[in-house]
Write a structure and sequence with these properties.
The protein is 22% helix and 23% strand. By secondary structure, the protein is of the alpha+beta class.
C-alpha cells in the first residue's frame, strides 16, 4: 500500500485585534485610515466631484464663520473620541473648542473631541451605511449636526444632535446647519452647482 504525501496546509491566521492606542501608534496611510468599532477602515481616494465639493464647502464655511471667529472648518482632520478615531471629510469646530497647544497657543495637532459639525461626501462604490454609523457616533458624543452628501443622488442626508435623520432632494431645499452656523445658508441646488464647470 502506498502512502500519499500531501504538502502541509498553512494555517490561516485571523488578524490580530488591536485597540485604539495601538491603532494610533501605526504609521499614517494615504488616504487616511479610521478606527471604527474595533476595525481599521481605509477611506477611499477622493475623486473629482468629492474634491470639488470638499474644497468649495470648506472655503464657503470658513468665509462666513472663521472671519468672525465663530467656528473653523478643517478637511481630513483626525478626531479621536468615544473609543474611535475618525477622519471626516470636513470637521467644523466652534472657535472656543478648537484644541490649542498649551505652550504656544497655536492650534493643537491632536483633536481628542468630536467636531461640532461633521460632513461626509460619499465616494463612488462607498457604502453609505458605514458613514451613517460614523455620523451617528458623532451625534451620540455631542456633534450638533452631521451631513452625508451623495453626489450620485444629488441629495443630502442630515443627522441632528438627537440622532434624527432627514433627507433633502429638492434643489430649493435649504440645508439645515447647527445653531452656531445660522449665518451660513446653502440650498441643495447651490451645493451641487459647484460641480458645474461652465
Amino acid at each position: 500500500m502506498t502512502a500519499s504525501l500531501s504538502a502541509p496546509v498553512a494555517a490561516e491566521s485571523a488578524p490580530e485585534a488591536i485597540d485604539l492606542n495601538q491603532f494610533l501608534a501605526l504609521p499614517d496611510t494615504q488616504p487616511a485610515s479610521e478606527f471604527i468599532n474595533g476595525k481599521i477602515i481605509q477611506k477611499p481616494m477622493p475623486q473629482g466631484e468629492h474634491s470639488t465639493l470638499q474644497a468649495d464647502l470648506v472655503a464657503a464655511i470658513n468665509a462666513v464663520l472663521k472671519q468672525r471667529k465663530i467656528a473653523r472648518a478643517y478637511t481630513e482632520l483626525r478626531c479621536t473620541f468615544g473609543g474611535q478615531a475618525i477622519v471626516p471629510d470636513l470637521s467644523v469646530f466652534l472657535w472656543d473648542r478648537i484644541p490649542r497647544n498649551a505652550t504656544t497657543g497655536r492650534v493643537a495637532n491632536q483633536f481628542l473631541i468630536p467636531p461640532d459639525w461633521a460632513i461626509e461626501i460619499l465616494s463612488p462604490k462607498q457604502a453609505s451605511l458605514g458613514i451613517i454609523d460614523k455620523l451617528l457616533h458623532c451625534a451620540q458624543h455631542g456633534t450638533q449636526m452631521g451631513w452625508l452628501i451623495d453626489p450620485d443622488q444629488n441629495g443630502v442626508l442630515t443627522i441632528n444632535h438627537d440622532c434624527q435623520i432627514s433627507v433633502f432632494r429638492d434643489a430649493n431645499d435649504r440645508l439645515p446647519v447647527p445653531e452656531f452656523a445660522a449665518e451660513f445658508q446653502l440650498t441643495l441646488g447651490q451645493l451641487f452647482d459647484w460641480l458645474a464647470v461652465d
